[in-house]
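Researcher: Good morning. I'm working through a list of sequences from a screen, and I'd like to move beyond sequence-only analysis. For each chain I'm collecting a predicted structure so we can compare shapes side by side. This is the next one on the list. No need for commentary yet; just the structure.
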Amino acid sequence: MNETAEQTSTFLLQVKAVKLNNEHPFTWASGRKSPIYCDNRVTLSYPEIRTYIRQRFVDLITEYYGDVDVIAGVATGGIAQGALVAQELGKPFVYVRSEEKKHGLTNQIEGEIHSGQTVVVVEDLVSTGKSSLIAVHALRDKGCVVKGMVAIFTYGLAVAAKNFEDANVELHTLTNYDSLIKVACELDYVREADLESLKTWRQNPELWSDQHMES
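Model: Good morning. Structure tokens for this chain:
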């Protein structure tokens, strides 16, 4: 586990951006049950953490993607994070909705961007990757060259890895599920007895959810 992953995980746990609870699972937007819930928008309320995340994003983009024309945020969690990164890099910023608006100009991409421009997409977290990749496809449909994506956190689900591979999108994150659970154990945010359940969920989230819906 590298220093960035450890520090990011520590920050997320400290401000309760990530919550862990095996006994009373959380319900995701999909309706599935999960022992973990992540809302990284909480980090925006803490200047020190907000600045740390921004700078580590800048480091990731510089290291893996080099110079880019535009930074794009995924609505809604990636908008603020992406805008902060774009400001620091001195780059134009746009954000991408999950679908076209039903009124006005019916835009899916908000802001000015042109065919042929290179883009890095900023996301707050990745679960299955489906909503994140909608933004990538919208940008590609516009004729943009998507160099890749950065995110604060990924659950590390196999389905996400496959979705990103199929879409030919490179993803780099500040931290991930394995790092977060390791730090959570070290800081006593989670009991050793709960580790097996957390591992089981990661291996098969659907089965874990079904079992806990029935219980």
